[in-house]
Amino acid sequence: MVECSRVLDGHSCRVTRCVGLRYVLFAPWLYERIAHHPERHRISDAIEKQELELTRRLRDAGQTGVIGTRSYPKPTAQPPSLTYWSALGTWRILRPTATGSIPSRQAVHRALARRPVRQQLQDDDRQLLIEDELIFCSIPKPPFEWNDSTRRLDFRLESFEERFLRNCFLSVERPNTEGTPSLLARLVEHRVEMTDRLELWSSKVRAAADQADREALLRARQAAALSAIGRGVYAALVEEIRDKHDGISTCDVQRSNLATVVEKFAAD
Questions:
Q1: 136 φ, ψ to 5°?
Q2: What is the mean pLDDT of residues 218-244?
Q3: Which of 148-151's residues contact partners 24+ apart within 8 Å by CB, and which partners?
Q4: CA distance 58 to 51
Q5: pTM for the whole thing?
Q6: What is the dihedral of CA 40, 135, 23, 74, to 10 degrees?
Q7: Phi and psi (nearest 5°) for 37?
Q8: Mean pLDDT of the chain
Q9: Which of 28, 40, 159, 237 gets the most CB atoms within 10 Å of its CB?
């Protein structure tokens, strides 16, 4: 949510603060590259190889938040395409099936592997006579440096990529409704810039939300308060047991702080 809402106005928040958000474009660009390759029998291996190369390029560019940096040159258990797959479907970048469901990553791999290699037959107007079914919606074309491994590649969003993602966010609907904008869509529409310090139930967020989301945000705030007190009690009890039961000299940081935690969150 924080990453998405920073693509709101296309000004100061455009440069480097959307760490990782460009993965929702990197993933489709990787799949489109594989889809046009004549050898598509081992799709998972091909994607893994491309994602490792993407990790290397982002790491070499000094980017933070790069998936797979710690395990490189070995593949990570959660590759970028898997990490962002649900978002690709929710944000309508990944095309749904005929039944309206979002295809799984494995289903897309199988479809690509079965896709025959066709000659690019064209009619008199140079239009393709046979077109393969698209995996993704009309995403922006990759920048020039995408296909040149010697050039710097980073998370910086181009202005046309920002506009594309903003339109994607505006189209996200609340689950199990027809045409009701999601909270994300409302935040984007009202240009609410989220920061790491801005609580999701803050006045700015609630002002953009509708009544149903305001009620949900209130419950989220109450649940967070309950969790804060619960963790405070647990931490204090651990100190107490360690000190009194185990006989180990223990500081009373958590026990001393418990009253402050309860006072701060009791009302919620």
A1: -115, 160
A2: 95
A3: 149/53, 149/57
A4: 10
A5: 0.74
A6: -20
A7: -90, 135
A8: 85
A9: 28
Burial class (CB in 10 A: 0-12, 13-18, 19+), 202: middle
Confidence of residue 19 (pLDDT cuts 50, 70, 90): low
Are residue 223 and residue 134 in the same domain, yes or no? no
Nearest alpha-carbon partner for 22 in 137, 222, 124, 164? 164
- Looking at the structure of the chain, the number of domains it has is 2
Q: Which domain holds residue 84?
A: 2-198
216-228, pLDDT tens digit by residue?
Answer: 999 999 999 999 9
C-alpha 221/C-alpha 116 separation (Å) is 53
The residue behind tokens 């693509």 is 7
Residue at token pair 């074309």: 141
Torsion of CA 28, 155, 168, 194, to 10 degrees: 150
* Separation CA 87–CA 93 (nearest Å): 8
Q: Is the pLDDT of residue 100 over 90?
A: no
> Over 90: is that where the pLDDT of 13 sits?
no
Over residues 103-109, the mean pLDDT reads 91
Task: Evaluate whether residue 205 is within a structural domain.
Answer: no
Q: Are residues 28 and 144 in the same domain?
A: yes
Residue 89 CB partners (closer than 8 Å, separation 6+): 96, 102
The answer as to whether 203 is a domain residue is no
Say yes or no: 10 and 118 in one domain. yes
